[in-house]
Give the backbone structure.
Amino acid sequence: MPKTKLFISSVQTEFAEERQMIFEYILSDPLLGRFFDPFLFERLPAIDQRTDTMYLNEVQQCSVYLGLLGTQYGFEDAQGISPTEREFDQATLHHKTRLIFLTGHSAQERNEKQNTFIQKAQQVLIRKRFTTIDELKASIYAALVNYLIEKELIRVGPFDATFYPSATIEDIDANKVSEFVQIAKARRGFKLPETAPVEEILVHLNLMKDGHITNAALLLFGKEPQRFFINSEVRCVHFHGIIVEKPIPSYKVFKGDVFELVDQAVDFVLSKLDYSVGTRQVNIEIPGKYEIPKEIIAEAIVNAIAHRDYTNNGSVQVMLFSDRLEVINPGALPLGWTTEKLKTLHTSVPANPLLAEPMYLKGYIERLGTGTADIMRIAKENNLQAPDFEQSDDFKAILYRPSSDQVTTKLPSSTHQLPTNYPPTTEGVPQYFRSTSVEVRNLLKVLEEEMSRQEIQDALSLKDRRNFRENYLEPALADEVIEMKFPDSPNHPRQKYLVTEKGSEIKKQLK
């Protein structure tokens, strides 16, 4: 992000030391130095150009004019105007932000023209008096921070509570809001009815005020959230080995609101995991589970999307390897927290509270900070290696796939334990594991007698209809391992799917 140019102006003979101190102060301050590029004429090299013209050009190019006014008026040109007043007039003409700081002298102590200049300045902007250099520094700091807040270059509140300047109610999908209310009412007893106006629902959720739409509203219910926040997408990738390497078997970039992102990313991971099916000895429905329980996959992905830093240009990344799943988000733990604290029951401190509340109401997250503790508990109940959490530039959650080899080793490029029975590259990995036919195999495992699309999808705990159709149903039909009950009418309202003779042979092998 380019810095904001700031022009420091004063009578040259009166504030030479102060100008230099302000220049160095702004550059050295961790916050101001990040956002402002101060201009000081003493720092310019000698050039073949009239100084008054050069300074006026610099004022025109700056965004902020900072003037120090004391007792002296300074050198006067042919029209009797000082360079300092010329620079102020130039800043006014070009609608620059003008900050004037006055010494504590009385009017009697000032030059008569300086008093006239100060009166003109007082009519058009807020000014601040100072008596010491420390007071001046404090006043400049406060004024520049206010400038950054007003320009929304920094925030004093959460990102999700910030209003998006150009967004309107037309950018909100009313159907998404209605669906949310229906589910939130059933799961959490949401008070408003589905028929309530969209504006009323958004105001109730603190997502709208005085006609202004918050960032959270766009991320939750926007028609095109990525039009406002291109970095809110989720990138999912699948590798056959335990390291990042090409060729990449499967790579997807998902877009949509936060609920759609969660569903799509979870379904992507599930489509690459093995699904085991039990028997009907206890239940009428055939019990089944994924090698990594869906609950902890969803929890890790929800946490990444709900708690990430949306001001960061990075995106959430979901990376599935042969031994583990890594969920990475551009975010940081609350100040003072450690990754070890996440492994126990802890309070919930959401980075995006207005985003978290509707996700709670729709049943995607819990309020009490049980998410990561549940991940640890469920992994242990399923005899999986304890998940890891890492915090560096990004936050990473690592969930381990089951391994027949319990011996682990430390890889030089990793900070966590990896099973040794997985090769570091795809060399030697059977084609059976390289292919994406795991989706078709899982479909065959749950398909009994004849079932509808929705019944198969529900049996596999998948939410994304498009993902199911493209990665499960269509490949299975193309491989002729399943067939339609009404092949001449693919969109038949009572369409069912059956296992073919070829599919039955594969089912026997899978069992």
The domain at 231-427 is CATH 3.30.565.60 (Heat Shock Protein 90). The first helix runs from residue 16 to 28.
